């Protein structure tokens, strides 16, 4: 396994897949697309297994090392993120197969043409985004991160725009946000480069000294990446973009795309910036995260549309992710960072399941107004069950991935004496329970005798694939050992910031 | 003042102009231009920073700017296509802004 180019394979397999789907005639798009997705998931999981068995890996593309060449590099943290992408991406691909296919039954040729194009474009762009996401997780230099980040962003905007109609203004706003966010990140890269003269992540971390320049670089990078991760109060673009996109796309955006910028921020924190520079910014991010947990959950509770509810819940869950920038450096060892990483993967599965379920429900009911879903639960048991499984993880009930990560959060917060974090995590869980049960209670009310909404038949694949992701979210609570062991490979958080990364 | 500093300062000015246009303007083409000016500013700062290294210009930032220009061009193309589609559907070239709430 040592000599095989597994890292680059995890990038070029989906990339080649995207090319194939584009070259073949459009009626084969779905078949090519699902084949390429299976191959991509297999390539990624092979890489993850190799990392778990034989440790971190490094590849020099074309035999060129830094500074001129591109180096790819994987440790336990990136491997876990690639595994998350493979699992969520694989299941969403199966869902998309039925989701985009089932629509063109109206017999209207013009409509069929539009649906066919939408399906073909989904597969092309999604495989491209998959390649770029793996590219971010494998990058070992700051500029490579910028390029792959930009590909992820542009792809995500195009995927949102696929829905047409009211998704177009949402996509437009998302485009401006994602472009400005990555340009601010690039500005930070410029500042770091002018100081240390290297782009390689680790060399930059070794020679960057605390000072005004490092501070300025950190602030612009944090603003840019927090904008792209939709941290309160920069979350304004997320709910419309995630809610108005096609359901398969919403799941990908909420589960995977926002984790990409979170991943880059964590790397910057642990590897690049000295503790004295990042400490105050980290405290501020933690405070904003706490506000986001409460505010996002409160807004989710007040939404009228199911997909908007799930999207605002993402705003709240992003808040938990940002707690690590306060807790991670202070907590003993790597407990705080582990909590964040575990939260990222369990949220990916849970939120993926909820968006897929919401899409299946909306397809059956014909809209996603929550009030008008009274009594449809019994007839749509499968998607509502998947929605509930995802909800269990969001609430942090045992056994679920959400429970494990919240437990890690609370223990590291208790160790550092951050009582307010413990309170906010508990309150956020309660609010999550409130908005999940609000939907479930309404859906499982006894149906009104007259005027019960009539349901359109939906392919069983939609409900089942949502259920699979929900089951994975719960399983992450039962078998937390393996992911946490993978996270320790190569000690990604080994040097705690308290000890400092300075040479 | 050495020439490279002029580049850096002018670049910073362009960044501010770009951010201003992005935040304040409502017309989508103007905002797209704002993002373009923002990226030009970042690129100029990169080039200016490159001259600080002793022993002639440094090739790495210039390669970065070239890549950045390619990204900016494709992003602009995507943005303009979206603006055109929005105009076709709604007859206007601006989108209503929901506040940060």
Automatic annotation (TrEMBL), chain A:
<dbReference type="GO" id="GO:0042773">
    <property type="term" value="P:ATP synthesis coupled electron transport"/>
</dbReference>
<keyword id="KW-1003">Cell membrane</keyword>
<feature type="transmembrane region" description="Helical">
    <location>
        <begin position="143"/>
        <end position="162"/>
    </location>
</feature>
<feature type="transmembrane region" description="Helical">
    <location>
        <begin position="121"/>
        <end position="137"/>
    </location>
</feature>
<feature type="transmembrane region" description="Helical">
    <location>
        <begin position="419"/>
        <end position="441"/>
    </location>
</feature>
<dbReference type="InterPro" id="IPR001750">
    <property type="entry name" value="ND/Mrp_TM"/>
</dbReference>
<feature type="transmembrane region" description="Helical">
    <location>
        <begin position="377"/>
        <end position="399"/>
    </location>
</feature>
<dbReference type="InterPro" id="IPR003918">
    <property type="entry name" value="NADH_UbQ_OxRdtase"/>
</dbReference>
<feature type="transmembrane region" description="Helical">
    <location>
        <begin position="284"/>
        <end position="301"/>
    </location>
</feature>
<feature type="transmembrane region" description="Helical">
    <location>
        <begin position="340"/>
        <end position="365"/>
    </location>
</feature>
<comment type="similarity">
    <text>Belongs to the CPA3 antiporters (TC 2.A.63) subunit D family.</text>
</comment>
<feature type="transmembrane region" description="Helical">
    <location>
        <begin position="6"/>
        <end position="24"/>
    </location>
</feature>
<protein>
    <submittedName>
        <fullName>Oxidoreductase</fullName>
    </submittedName>
</protein>
<feature type="transmembrane region" description="Helical">
    <location>
        <begin position="213"/>
        <end position="238"/>
    </location>
</feature>
<dbReference type="GO" id="GO:0005886">
    <property type="term" value="C:plasma membrane"/>
</dbReference>
<keyword id="KW-1133">Transmembrane helix</keyword>
<feature type="transmembrane region" description="Helical">
    <location>
        <begin position="174"/>
        <end position="193"/>
    </location>
</feature>
<dbReference type="Pfam" id="PF00361">
    <property type="entry name" value="Proton_antipo_M"/>
</dbReference>
<keyword id="KW-0812">Transmembrane</keyword>
<feature type="transmembrane region" description="Helical">
    <location>
        <begin position="250"/>
        <end position="272"/>
    </location>
</feature>
<feature type="transmembrane region" description="Helical">
    <location>
        <begin position="308"/>
        <end position="328"/>
    </location>
</feature>
<feature type="domain" description="NADH:quinone oxidoreductase/Mrp antiporter transmembrane">
    <location>
        <begin position="139"/>
        <end position="428"/>
    </location>
</feature>
From TrEMBL, chain B:
<keyword id="KW-0472">Membrane</keyword>
<dbReference type="InterPro" id="IPR050601">
    <property type="entry name" value="CPA3_antiporter_subunitC"/>
</dbReference>
<protein>
    <submittedName>
        <fullName>Na+/H+ antiporter subunit C</fullName>
    </submittedName>
</protein>
<dbReference type="InterPro" id="IPR039428">
    <property type="entry name" value="NUOK/Mnh_C1-like"/>
</dbReference>
<dbReference type="GO" id="GO:0005886">
    <property type="term" value="C:plasma membrane"/>
</dbReference>
<comment type="similarity">
    <text>Belongs to the CPA3 antiporters (TC 2.A.63) subunit C family.</text>
</comment>
<feature type="transmembrane region" description="Helical">
    <location>
        <begin position="63"/>
        <end position="83"/>
    </location>
</feature>
<keyword id="KW-0812">Transmembrane</keyword>
<feature type="transmembrane region" description="Helical">
    <location>
        <begin position="33"/>
        <end position="51"/>
    </location>
</feature>
<keyword id="KW-1133">Transmembrane helix</keyword>
<keyword id="KW-1003">Cell membrane</keyword>
<feature type="transmembrane region" description="Helical">
    <location>
        <begin position="6"/>
        <end position="24"/>
    </location>
</feature>
<dbReference type="Pfam" id="PF00420">
    <property type="entry name" value="Oxidored_q2"/>
</dbReference>
